[in-house]
User: Fold this.
Amino acid sequence: MKFNLSNEKFYCEYWRKLFEEFLTNYGLEKTSLKNNVEIGHYNFATKIGYGFPNGYAEKRFIHTIYKNESFYPKSMLITKKWMINNNNQVLTFIGKERKILKNNFGVGAKSIYLVKSVEDCFNHMNNRDFYILQNEIEPLLHNRKKLDERVYYLVIKEDNRYSGFFFQEGHIKLAGFNFDKSNNNMGVFATNIKAPKPNKSNPDDFTIDTEKFLENNPNKKTWITNRLNIMLKISNKFLPVIAKNVKKYYETTFEPKYLYQLYGIDLLIDKDYNFFLCEFNGKPGVVYEKVMPKNITDINKIMCRKIQNHFLLNWINDKQNTYYKDSSIKKLSEFIS
Assistant:
């Protein structure tokens, strides 16, 4: 009975240690198998993958996820090679108002740019990556600061059935400086934890537990409803793509019966409480205590424990459909490949 949790590509150190401790309680031994966990327990033997293959690494794959205007209306998906022959389309899209250019495979504020011309776009793009060009939204503000919400989305594969689950645990990330549309400082726009912040500032001031944030918010019901709606749209688009990707990866080898992977999804909110897809993170830093406030880290640990207890434990015990009872875990959709 063997398992492998040595691949740091997929999860942070806490995540890896959590499952290592969990699985060793079942007398499982470490092995060097890539991407998979090989176990034998009770009356069955199978392989459990702890991360979807190429679930985050393939740039075309991420590009496919964005290719739906319901996630971010009035946006344009571009590459530098495509732009060489389609300058006029980009010029028309930009018009007289500046736009947001984002690398679909970038990290943090370093991959977001404010652009006013085709030349600006070219200057910030490389020949390898895929980009999204977006209109600015009029953002919802908290204490005069732009915000987004990080929510967590778990995809599990059981045989040929893929299911998406949304966790109520989440947190609000605030920009470091007061919103001002005339200011070009990315600290005004970027809400990433590593985005520019005032000197000697306390990270606790820029990250808020979602439940606490919504506690006395008069628009709480609208927030919850609209957030659930966009997560359902994302799930319906995402599950067929991940199923196709997994099937392609395992064409010449054994395909595990069970696979799971956690994704971090960042949602932008406008002043009317409409939600938009901002980022789709294939390997989210669930617990990163050097930069993440402790109270948010603690919230994320609760979610990790739920994944452990509600999903993996039942796989090992080979029980069917007995682990979806926690009301804070929403099953969004299902896809049969």
Summary: The longest helix spans residues 220-249. The chain is about 30% helix and 30% strand.
